[in-house]
Amino acid sequence: PLRECVVSEEQAAVLFNSKFSSQLRSLNQKLPGSRIVVLDIYTPLLNLIVNPTRYGFEVSNRGCCGTGNIEVSFLCTRLDVGTCTDASKYVFWDSFHPTEAAYKFLVRYFIQQGEIG
């Protein structure tokens, strides 16, 4: 299947996020009056990928653009052959970047969690 997670990279991301959060707490204490916020995009994005239909998406294993597996950024436009007709049904626009609909979901998620607002 496409978009399988690589366990070692997944574990590295979790470890990095844990250590990074610890360092930011320390930095917040050293800089009174500052508010440094880290948003954990890993967890809600993984949830979207694993359970797309729960959040109104239909496709999470490939991007809307082109083949959805290799194209990235400027290689993807709405005019490319194979670009889907409704990007709002996809979690990813290209092989890497979330769609506008996925970003809207993530922003709403962070607002509901009280992490931004």
Any overview of this molecule?
The protein is mostly helical. It has 2 domains: 1-38, no CATH class; 41-117, no CATH class. It contains 3 helices and 2 strands. The protein has a two-stranded parallel sheet with strand order 1-2. The model has no long low-confidence stretch (mean pLDDT 84). Belongs to the 'GDSL' lipolytic enzyme family. GO terms for molecular function: hydrolase activity, acting on ester bonds.
> What is the 3D form?
elongated
Give the helix proportion (percent range).
25-40%
Provide the spatial order of strands within the biggest beta sheet: 1-2
Structural domain count: 2
Structural class: mainly alpha
Biggest sheet descriptor: 2 strands, parallel
Sum up the structure in keywords.
single chain, 117 residues, mainly alpha, 2 domains, two-stranded parallel sheet, 3 helices, 2 strands
In short:
This protein has helices at 7-30, 42-50, 100-112, and strands at residues 59-63, 90-92.
What are the SSEs and their pairings?
Layout: H1 7-30, H2 42-50, E1 59-63, E2 90-92, H3 100-112
Parallel strand pairs: 1-2
